[in-house]
Amino acid sequence: MTISRVNDASITGGCPELRDVIFASCYVYSPCGSGVASERSRLLCALLKAADSRIIFKYAVRVRQQVVGTSPLAGFLGPDMLLVPIPGSAPLPEGDVSVADRLATALVHEGLGGTVWRGLHRIRAVRKSATAAPGTRPTVGTHFQSFAIDRTALICHRVVLVDDVVTKGRTLLAAAARVQQAFPNAQIRAFALLRTMGFVQEVSRLLQPCVGEIRWRAGDAHRNP
Predict the structure, then answer these.
(1) What is the CATH code for 8-14+21-216?
(2) Could you give the dihedral angle defined by the CA atoms of residues 84, 3, 158 and 175, in that order, rounded to the nearest 10 degrees?
(3) pLDDT tens digits along 23-40
């Protein structure tokens, strides 16, 4: 299994039993770079956040092209997996669909998941990391407490959490903990279309598929790469 058992007391106490979750991403996002690739990455991020369906399905096709052959993503996604979209920072009004949900649906359309399971919910709002000042971004524990699980049985034990962008990985780590707590026999990994390269001055290209790890260390989530 990718992750270990965790309970509310341990994660909010600052030292969860949860230690790591394997994640994959396909593209990089540079919030500060000034080159052409960095500017394109910010445009892609903005279009994703705007829930542009044309862009989401276009990049789902690109992901499909990366899960075969010798790509680092080979075999990471497939039709035998259950895709679980990560909720946004606040509970959605009835009828609204999150960006991650749209991305998960597009990935299933491309044969990269068997179905979308919408059993992970945000029951209270958290501060948006993208607009929060350093030091005020939600912790892993804050995210964990803001999530709730629909106890409807999972129809597949191979679970992939899906998000549009991963930064440090706090949201994915907390979501993995919450899903695993409810379904301790599930094998859980995570996928984000973009990974933020906040400490890199410039990126040379957008397409940089990788498989890495989000690990609990020194009281926080740490992503590598």
Answers:
(1) 3.40.50
(2) -10
(3) 999 999 999 888 999 999
